[in-house]
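User: Can you write out an input/output pair for a complex, sequences first and structure second?

Assistant: Here is one pair. Inputs:
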Amino acid sequence: NAGVTQTPKFQVLKTGQSMTLQCAQDMNHNSMYWYRQDPGMGLRLIYYSASEGTTDKGEVPNGYNVSRLNKREFSLRLESAAPSQTSVYFCAIRDYLNEQFFGPGTRLTVL
Amino acid sequence: GQQLNQSPQSMFIQEGEDVSMNCTSSSIFNTWLWYKQDPGEGPVLLIALYKAGELTSNGRLTAQFGITRKDSFLNISASIPSDVGIYFCAGQPETGNQFYFGTGTSLTVIP
C-alpha cells in the first residue's frame, strides 16, 4: 500500500460511541486524504490536509473531525458514531507527481 | 461537487477479449488516474495521465487523457482471470487539491 498504514483494520461500534481512525505515511508527502467507500457510490472525500497543521472539508465532512498534528500522521475521529457511518474508510497520500496512493482501509460497522 | 460518470457499470467478458471503459466529467480536469481494487483491498494505482491527448501504457493496460480534458479511457487487451476487480477513474480539477472518483466498473473475466 505504498507506505500508507491504517489502524485498525476492522471495528464494530455501538451508536453513540466514539473512535479515532489512524493513518500514517512513511514517504514525507504533504497532502493526505480521508475517504469513505460505500457500495455503488465510489470513493467520497471526507477531509483532506494539504500540509502539516492544515485541514479542509471534502464532500461529506458531517459527523467527522480530523487532526494533522505532524507531517506523518492524519487521524479521523467519529465523536458520536451513527449507523450511516458504517463504511470502509481509506486514507491516501498525494505525491509530487500528483498521484494518489491508498492505505489498506478500515472496515467500520456501527450498530 | 464534481460528477464523474463512469461506464459501463459492469462487464462480463471471455478470457482473451479486450475491454474498454471510460469516464466523463462535467468540467475540465488536469490529472486523470486509473485504479484497480480487489475485494477487501485498497485501490491500487494503474496509470496516471497529465496532458490532453496523452496515451500511456502499463503492460496490457492503455489509458488516454481525452482531448477535451473532460474524459478519459482505459483499455485492457487480452484479458486474463486476474484482471477481475473493480476499476475506478479519478480526476483532479484545474484548481484545488481534491480528487473526484467515478463509481467504478466491475469486471468479470470468464475463463
